[in-house]
Amino acid sequence: MCGVSPRPTTPRRPARLGVHPVRGGIEVAVLATHATGVEVCLFDGHGDEPHTTERRYPLDGPVHGVFSGFVPDVAPGTRYGLRAHGAWDPVHGLRHNPAKLLVDPWARGLEGSLRYGPQTYGHVLDDELRGDVHGPADPRDSAGHVPYSVVVDTAALPGPDPAANRPWVPWERTVVYEAHVRGLTMLHPDVPPELRGTYAGLAHPAVVDHLVGLGVTAVELLPVHAAASEPHLTARGLTNYWGYSTLGFFAPEPRYATAAARAAGPAAVLAELRGAVHALHEAGLEVLLDVVYNHTCEGGNAGQHVSWRGLDNTLYYRHDGGVPATLADVTGTGNTLDLRRTEVVRMTLDSLRYWADVVGVDGFRFDLAVTLGRGPDGFTPDHPLLVGVATDPSLHGLKLVAEPWDVGPGGWRTGQFGLPWAEWNDRFRNAVRSFWLADPARAAHGLPGHRVRDLATRLSGSVDLFGHGDPPLVRGPEASVNFVTAHDGFTLADLVAYDHKHNLANGEDNRDGTDDNRSWNHGVEGPVELDSPAAALLPLRRRSIRNLLATLVVAAGTPMITAGDELGRTQRGNNNAYCQDTELGWVSWDLSPWRADLLATARYLLALRREHRALRATRFYSGRPLRPGGRPDLAWYAADGTPFDHARWHDPSIRTLQMERATDDDARTAADVVLVVVNGALQEVDVTLAGGPGDRWRLVWDSVWDHPDEARSAAIAGALHATAGAETVLEPLSLRVYVLDPEHLPPTPGPTS
Predict the structure, then answer these.
(1) Which of 647, 120, 707, 680 minimizes the C-alpha distance to 438?
(2) CA–CA separation, 26 and 69 (whole Å)
């Protein structure tokens, strides 16, 4: 065992946590407030190769809970780990066991795999992983059974700085595309096999061209932080495919890199990810990361002893305050990081700054974000972490999106995060699914559905959720990230084909996954063969998909599309494919005719949104003209063309409504006016088009069209233009979008004093 060399020429300064290359070696600083000693351990070899030597260097300290030192003659690429000495007193939460090699929580790169034998647990277990969680410490060395941390010199990374060419897309024009790095490209026929499922594959021109052609502006990646699978999945031969099981908050997941990058080491893995971010930026696409700072991969009280648990179990993890010490769990994963602790907040902010400054990403979606705002008295939007994220200079102007719930007490907090946060709007998802799917399914059996007022609230930006604040209405509808599907739940195609989840492939006897799907199989469960009698329902299923997609695009707020929904992707009824790293969980790029039509429709609808300012709300609506003589910014009409009144909003039998939205009239630009006509009934409905005297509407889209080109047939039939007050017939379960012809707009009022 060697000692740590002093650095008398280096002025004393607060230690930077982690391992940092400097001239002549590395500086090391480790937070372990309850430990009596910490060693940094250096290993030879690469990847999963067995090491032949281990050199241990005890660190000085602690000073304010930090052990630190300088280790000479250590080059980038060196593998290392940590060992913590101290009390083994699990009854009181202390679990120091120097036999266990620990991953550095601040490591910039990882090599090797986490194994699942008894060596990776701090307490004694038998080969069947049975034992007393409060029993004695296990003496077996875990080196070789846990990943190695790797020294990475981020200052020497090749290529341009991705942060220097950020697109800075305004929220008004943002369309989010939620994707899995691996799943997006594993089956793409135009991506070379060696690039499929990788960071480099994400940046391949065929993928970039698809994203740009679709019309999305931001790619939101499911977790790319290094992750590990849960032991129960490994025992069933499965993996945590989604990656919501973090092993390193600073290290990219190595399995998403090409084989060449993995062979070259973690610095090459990081460089490949940076190169992908830069390529997407060059195409005008932002990159958001789905980040998991609410828990780690170490699991519950009886979980593995891999990193944080061995360094400072009572600091990093939230406990219930009892004896024996028991982890508090508001995440549903067995543990919860304790964001009441200053140093845990520091770790989170350090990580976010790293991904923003070094990797160059454009924002973050925070998994179970309510956990991040839980203080001693529960959730508060003024939690130090939330304030820190919102005010940090490195994060200023980046997109911050909260998943505004967790599974703890008072865990549903949609609309309560404040500026500059946006939030996933689950109320939008539920309202849209209910209106287009669950309600018609009930109506087919003679049962009542929901009233249209909830759908109307979501279409107009969810002011009931996001209009609060000081001053009121300051956040605007852009704070609402609207979605119908996400990685978690049915795909868009499965929503219209399954009434029930089919998750047997997950190995949990179909117990996992939500039962609140609000889906509708339209009469037959699952796929339908084209030559079967049930094929007659396929056109309605596909129209339902178009209705859902169009509602998402025309609603005020920020739309989010799940990767593959534009291609009619199916998971065969699995609504919790978190462990399906197979074709079940990957995007299929095999376009049958109806899927090609759906892709064309998605592109067309997003193009409409780009072209019409009235579909991109930047402020909440008042229902009044914004300027004297102008038209109201929002108005609602019944099927007969008369304004909605109080009774109609509360009548569950009404399933038809018209929404007129107008931009602010000013002297510089012509007003933009759209009319969205919705028929959620199971029968045709006669509609009198709303509008003012002389208004001439142009039909730009109808969900009965399998392909946008069907507008040409409508034009030949003379059905594309109609004046306000004209009678038209809407087919069952359909949605139309009209725009007011500019030549028929009233004169723009001049400026007023």
Answers:
(1) 680
(2) 8
The tokens describing 380, both together, are 């508060």
Rounded Cα–Cα distance for residues 256 and 26 (Å) = 28
State the DSSP code for 438.
Answer: I
With a pLDDT cut of 90, the percent of the chain lying above it is 89
Q: Write the DSSP assignment of 589-652 as a string of letters.
A: ----HHHHHHHHHHHHHHHHHHH-GGGS-SS---SSBSSTT--BSEEEE-TTSSBP-HHHHT-T
Spatial contact of 428 and 465, defined as CB atoms under 8 Å apart: no
DSSP 92: G
pLDDT, one tens digit per residue, over 707-716 is 999 988 877 7
For the record, the structure tokens of 416 come out as 């309560």
Please state, in angstroms and rounded to a whole number, the distance separating the CA atoms of residues 183 and 180. 5
With beta carbons less than 8 A apart as the criterion, state whether 672 and 613 touch. yes
Residues 605, 549 contacting (CB under 8 angstroms)? yes
Query: Facing residues of 425 across strands?
Result: 482
Count of Cβ atoms closer than 10 Å to residue 500 Cβ = 14
Q: What is the signed CA dihedral for 166, 171, 173, 174, rounded to 10 degrees?
A: 70
Amino acid at 24: G
Q: Quick one: tokens of 520?
A: 């509708």
Distant-in-sequence, close-in-space partners of 178: CB < 8 Å, separation ≥ 6 = 220, 222, 290, 483, 486, 487, 560, 561, 562, 563
Cβ pair 456, 657 in contact under 8 A: yes
Split at pLDDT 50, 70, 90, the class of 8 is: very low
The answer to whether the bond into 136 is cis (omega within 30° of 0) is no
User: Is the N-terminal amide bond of 471 cis, ω within 30° of 0?
Assistant: yes
As to burial, measured by CB atoms within 10 angstroms (0-12 exposed, 13-18 middle, 19+ buried), residue 13 is exposed
337-365 CB burial, b ≥16 within 10 A, e <16: bbbebebbbebbbbbbebbbebbbbbbbb
Q: Would you say 110 and 150 are in contact if contact means Cβ atoms under 8 Å apart?
A: yes
Q: Which of 379, 466, 378, 476 shows the shortest CA–CA distance to 426?
A: 466
pLDDT digits (tens, 9 = 90+) for 538-570: 999 999 999 999 999 999 999 999 999 999 999
- Write out the two tokens for 417: 């995060």
Take residue 571 and report the two structure tokens written for it.
């998971």
Pairing relationship of beta strands 88-89 and 148-150 according to DSSP bridges: unpaired
CA 663 to centroid of chain Cα atoms: 30
Q: Map tokens 């979980």 to a residue.
A: 303
> Which pTM does this prediction carry?
0.95
Report the chain's terminal Cα–Cα distance, integer Å: 81
| 664, two tokens | 């602010």
**Residues of 455-492 as b/e, b for ≥16 C-beta within 10 angstroms?**
bbbbbbbbbebbbeeeeeeebbbbbbbbbbbbbebbbb
Q: Cα–Cα distance between 20 and 521 in angstroms, integer?
A: 56
> Are 17 and 78 a contacting pair, CB within 8 Å?
no
Residue 40 has pLDDT above 90, yes or no: yes
- Please identify every residue annotated as catalytic: 367, 403
